[in-house]
Design brief:
2 copies of one chain form a homodimer. In chain A, 43% of the residues lie in helices and 19% in strands. Chain A is built from 14 helices and 16 strands. The first copy, chain A, starts with a helix and ends with a strand. Chain A has a 7-stranded parallel beta sheet, sandwiched between helices. In chain A, strands 5-4-3-6 form a 4-stranded parallel beta sheet, sandwiched between helices. A 3-stranded antiparallel beta sheet of chain A has the order 1-2-16, with no helix packed on it. The first copy, chain A, has 2 domains: 242 residues, 3-Layer(aba) Sandwich (Aldehyde Dehydrogenase, Chain A, domain 1), CATH 3.40.605; 148 residues, Aldehyde Dehydrogenase, Chain A, domain 2 (3-Layer(aba) Sandwich), CATH 3.40.309.10. By secondary structure, chain A is α/β, with parallel strands linked by helices. Chains A and B meet through strand 2, helix 9, helix 10, helix 14 and strand 13 of A and strand 2, helix 9, helix 10, helix 14 and strand 13 of B. Strand 13 of chain A pairs parallel with strand 16 of chain B.
Chain lengths: 424, 424
């Protein structure tokens, strides 16, 4: 057994032991610990920023790209933002202990479902240090212990942040063992972690498509996977031109690097004739490269020096994560739904339409975590959809679908209160 | 690729294609198909009973035990019972399409969760032919396609029953491809099936502990596992003696071969002195073998020819599935909870008490799918707990915990209705 694996198992065991005391932690205690984390983030800035500077230096030396370095960077302003996020989690209702589906059986047994923590959450995530704080806060509020394994580029930042979290837990009377951070950056740790089903109740992988697929193939810990968003918006012939242009622009341009950003515009021929040139102009002006099928291309006139070209087959069903949009003219709602059924990843799908019947059919027939009518696909986000925060966006159908907030980090138990009943 | 695997993949593909049309099937159509299955079970008895006779002959020739043969046997009466079960599923509310957690966001987007079928369910199950009908009915009502793989001893019965189901589906205008039955009895089929994640949305293994453990180690299809019930009842010092005796007797004796039957009685010394001799007498009179710790043994006096003996360590934490009960005297509620934490399987746990505070602590602190107060553990059953029917009892915490009925065979999608909103 390597050192890496030993660290993992030692910490996973400690998390499992901690989970038992977390199950019944009063809401006030959990909120006090969260407030302690927020205050420490504001107060302890120097130690965190010093640790982050080590990661940034190493990152620059390793020639990490600008976007990676930007995700890695912590500033005073960002730490204050992280503290605000933690306080937002504290302000959310505590899901644990909530009873639902109460009923009394004919034999007099009073029955209810009671929401309980899952136990221990394992999370492997990208090199954004704020995720360390986000996930710790969400797990704590939902009464779960957590075993964290962040990207190796953020190792100093994450170590410092986890120490801060564990101190704050201890000060609030919560066992610091509730939050475990794996310092070993060996890939073997992850391979072991996804099979640690005796200690982990849920595994959440955050990362790229290749990693998610690997987890699906290899995890025996129950996992909720997502993140891969091949996202479509269908603009039908009744769509309002201004709404369509604004929604498509927002969905593609507002933050192109994330999973709910638009990948493919499907558009009815009548709508395309009426509004595609305007939509395309706005997009190309913002630096978006358009990859168009022949019918769309024909409507856009001479390409000149605009970033517009003919789509290849691989441009449909692809998650670009960049300022690239594929465009296809489809003759009907049926054809749009069929395209989405074929190429979609079940993440986020939208229709822009003035026709209620078309909207209803789209919502009924498209099978995705979030289906939107006349709104930007960028709204598929825990914060935007009212969850306050999210640990991930699930594209699986089991347990949780779409953004996962506090409630999605819980299970339930059946509670049956009798007065001596036996089964006939 | 073997023939076995080809059959599986062909049928799984057909199920996946069928699932798309099942998603939006009107409740009336599903109920008509269920009524058709029920009527056919009553009408087509001869063909079914003839097929069952082949299985019974083969089973006797193979010297299957009496209990196996009894599970395998179909009679006119049992078919009529199965028809009634199907009609009971038809009478249950349709979970599909139900909207919940509706709210309107500040930006005006109207949000709801809408319940949708999972898609395709795979199920490998024991040699009880009625399971073929139960699972088919539950999957149909919840809008799911299903790929069934029953025990090889029931192959003729299951083939005949599946043909009946598919005929009834076709007559009601539902694609018969919704129900797929794998005829190949090679073990390789199951090995392939648990990794068929491109076609199956949920895998439900029914069977013994060894099989369940194998699935947990090997499945990449999301699986809900359960069935292993190491079940405790704690009788505290305030328990009513008659209630305690009746509850323990019912939990152990009423049907000892199933997962919610009692395995270990934990009893407070004061309660043991007051009532253990009576509890033991009733149990031994019903043929229950008692395996007692030293303190319980001392209270039961001379054993004489009664089936009472000293417990060995392995008698705690064991699922007996037979008329055997281990008994341990514990000094406190804390010790009872600690025993259950150590030895329980998270399936079904009960307390018999006259003390509301003790009941509340037990319910709060015991982590199991179903926790009962003053009632028999035999109530952990979908039918008994008001679900109408069940596909399995989950001991996992993800997706569903405890008995799984129709709702537990569904997922949800987020539906967001906007009026042109974009993300700021």
């Amino acid at each position: 057994m390597t050192t890496a694996v030993s660290e993992l198992i030692t910490k996973a065991k400690a998390a499992k032991a901690a989970a038992r005391s977390l199950r019944m932690l009063p809401t006030e205690t959990k909120n006090a610990a969260l407030e302690g984390i927020a205050a420490a983030l504001e107060r302890g800035q120097r130690a965190i920023l010093d640790a982050n500077a080590l990661d940034m230096d190493a990152g620059r030396a390793a020639d990490l790209g600008e976007s990676v370095l930007d995700r890695l960077l912590l500033t005073e302003e960002r730490l204050i933002g992280m503290a605000a996020d933690v306080r937002a989690v504290a302000a959310l209702p505590d899901p644990v202990g909530e009873e639902f589906d109460q009923r009394t059986l004919e034999n007099g047994i009073r029955l209810a479902h009671r929401r309980v923590p899952l136990g221990v959450i394992g999370c492997v995530y990208e090199n954004r240090p704020n995720v360390t704080i986000d996930i710790s806060a969400l797990c704590l509020k939902s009464g779960n212990a957590v075993v964290l394994r962040g990207g190796k580029e953020a190792i100093h930042s994450n170590t410092a942040l986890t120490a801060l979290v564990r101190d704050a837990l201890g000060s609030a009377g919560v066992t610091p063992e509730a939050v475990q951070f794996i310092t070993d950056t060996d890939r073997a740790v992850v391979e072991q972690m996804v099979r640690l089903k005796d200690y982990l109740d849920l595994f959440i992988p955050r990362g790229g498509e290749q990693f998610i697929r690997w987890v699906r193939e290899n995890a025996t810990v129950p996992s909720v996977t997502g993140g891969i968003g091949v996202v479509h918006t269908y603009v039908d012939e009744t769509a309002d031109a201004e709404d369509a242009a604004a929604i498509v622009f927002n969905a593609k341009v507002q933050r192109p690097s994330v999973c709910n950003a638009l990948d493919t515009l499907l558009i009815h021929p009548a709508a395309a004739a009426r509004m595609l040139p305007d939509i395309a102009s706005r997009l190309t002006a913002a630096g978006v490269e358009l990859r168009c099928d022949q019918r769309a291309l024909a409507l856009l006139g001479p390409v000149d020096d605009r970033p517009i070209k003919a789509a290849e087959e691989g441009d449909f069903g692809q998650e670009f994560l960049a300022l690239v949009l594929s465009i296809r003219v489809v003759d009907s709602l049926d054809e749009a739904i069929e395209h989405i059924e074929t190429y979609g990843s079940g993440h986020t799908e939208a229709i822009v339409t003035g026709d209620d019947a078309a909207a209803a059919r789209f919502v009924d027939e498209v099978d995705a975590a979030v289906v939107l009518v006349n709104a930007s696909t960028r709204f598929n986000d825990g914060g935007q959809l009212g969850l306050g925060a999210e640990v991930a966006i699930s594209t699986g159908k089991l347990h949780a679908r779409g953004p996962m907030g506090l409630r999605e980090l819980t299970s339930y138990k059946w509670v049956a209160l009798g007065t001596g009943q036996v089964r006939p």
